Predict the structure.
Amino acid sequence: MTQYTSLEQLPLALSANDVAKVLGISRAKAYQLMHSKSFPTITIGKRMTVPKDKLIEWMERQMTLAR
């Protein structure tokens, strides 16, 4: 199981497991989030991934909305 201690360590494309680790949520919640229209998911066949840079942008927008 990979542990990430900084954003630089993240892979270029994150799986649901990676998203769950980064956001501190369950894998099921990560999949739920990845199916939402506002989340930057790329689907390749049946595989869903999230580009690292788009995840960071999404997180920054969420922090702005929370203020």
Summary: The chain has a mean pLDDT of 93. The radius of gyration is 12 Å. DSSP finds three helices and three strands in the chain. The longest strand covers residues 47-51.
